């Protein structure tokens, strides 16, 4: 789930800052708060800045506390604004707090805040590198509401004005801006410049690792995350990045351990725990996600908690509860926070409710709602869930590990299961297990195992064909068609000859399943089947039937 994921990996790439004061003890206290913030210890950071305000209620101190609420996993705009306004009460000319309030507007989706930030910087006469930096940070902190070009301009000015002893976080944020522009080379160059300046190298290596992850260069990503942990085994964000890496490779047990380490080295701030609950969900560890979410549910005000609970309910097949929670989220959250994925989830929930609805009019309405809302997610090209496949699972009954375990087993299945458990990346073991499930006619087990294969080797087309066949044997024709379509789309031109028979069957199977719903498509697909294999008798018969 990309909007819940997750993984929110980009968050760990955003650097912290340091402001130097003449009073060394005070600067050290500020540094403690900044270090906590950079290490995802939000409770400690908030406590640190609150103590600083108690000693000196200055505009700057209110800004740092407010900024902490903006930079946590889910921004708390109300508390951030409260502190920025207090800062302006302390000093009505405070450029930092003016930037803070503009940041809140930008985070909520009001793009006019970009012009406000420009005006604040102009009013400051660009004399203070810290104002330039904070303006740039505000323009990079929100993934969907930002202005990286302007941020790069301000950061370069801040670097130029500083000249020597340039803080590492200037380069961190410069890297973030280039990431938003999808220029990974320039982003890595900025991180390279930060590395010798940073007191905690783990912070930089983690940023490099997540940059490689964004570029889907997984080996380099893992190397840098490993360097981060080797440099500082207590740096929590590195474990969150490692969890994202292990989730990508379906290594759920390792990801769970990563999350335990993240929990160990972060802190008990409710919003940090919310991030952990999200990551558990992404790891398909719904039980742990629910445990963490239940623990902090009443401690956080952000309506995002209702959305996450809705996903957990949906995963458990609790459609009525899921609907109540997603409706709560939509009614309480600002409109800018309701994403296409949320519409898609509402569609899936409606489809789930339709299955048990006895009133035909209500059932029809729910099915129409499902199609309409899932279409919104698909038009937006949202990939939080595989919408068609999820819908097919609901309509046809999805495969689960419980159903696979309850199905037939053989010595070959048990032996292969042990091999896969010992090495989840062993494609040969996964292949053996999938075929053993098929031989035993344990179609749910076969579906799940072929899915593991396609997760591990997404470009290996035969896994999609075999999954389609397994779905078809299990009686889930909608899911079978989706898998066959994926197989057809994945076969490379150079591999068509080697996959000719499987392609012919896939086209035929889709044509057969579509013949009563989409005659034009059925005719097209059966013709493609016969082109590949003119002697295929089932296709010949279907073609004759369709063209009477």
Number of strands: 0
Helix content: over 70%
Amino-to-carboxy terminus distance:
46 Å
Rg over CA atoms: 27 Å
Major sheet: size, sense and barrel closure? none
Please, what is the average pLDDT?
Answer: 87
User: How many alpha or pi helices?
Assistant: 30
Question: Which word captures the global form?
Answer: elongated
In percent, how much strand structure appears in the residues? under 5%
Structural class: mainly alpha
Low-confidence stretches: 1-28
H-E order: HHHHHHHHHHHHHHHHHHHHHHHHHHHHHH
Can you walk me through this structure?
The chain is mainly α and 548 residues long. 72% of the residues lie in helices and 0% in strands. It has 30 helices and no strands. The chain has helices at 24-38, 42-55, 59-71, 77-90, 95-107, 112-123, 129-138, 148-162, 168-180, 184-194, 201-214, 218-231, 236-248, 252-265, 270-282, 286-296, 304-315, 319-332, 340-356, 360-379, 387-396, 401-406, 411-422, 427-439, 443-456, 462-474, 477-490, 500-514, 519-532, 537-546. Helix 3 (59-71) packs antiparallel against helix 4, helix 14 packs antiparallel against helix 15 and helix 19 (340-356) runs antiparallel to helix 20. The longest helix has 20 residues, at 360-379. It is elongated and about 85 Å long. The relative contact order is 0.06. Mean pLDDT is 87; it is low at 1-28. This is Tetratricopeptide repeat-containing protein. Residues 1-27 form the signal peptide. Pfam families: TPR_6 (PF13174). TPR repeats lie at residues 202-235. Keywords: Repeat, Signal, TPR repeat.
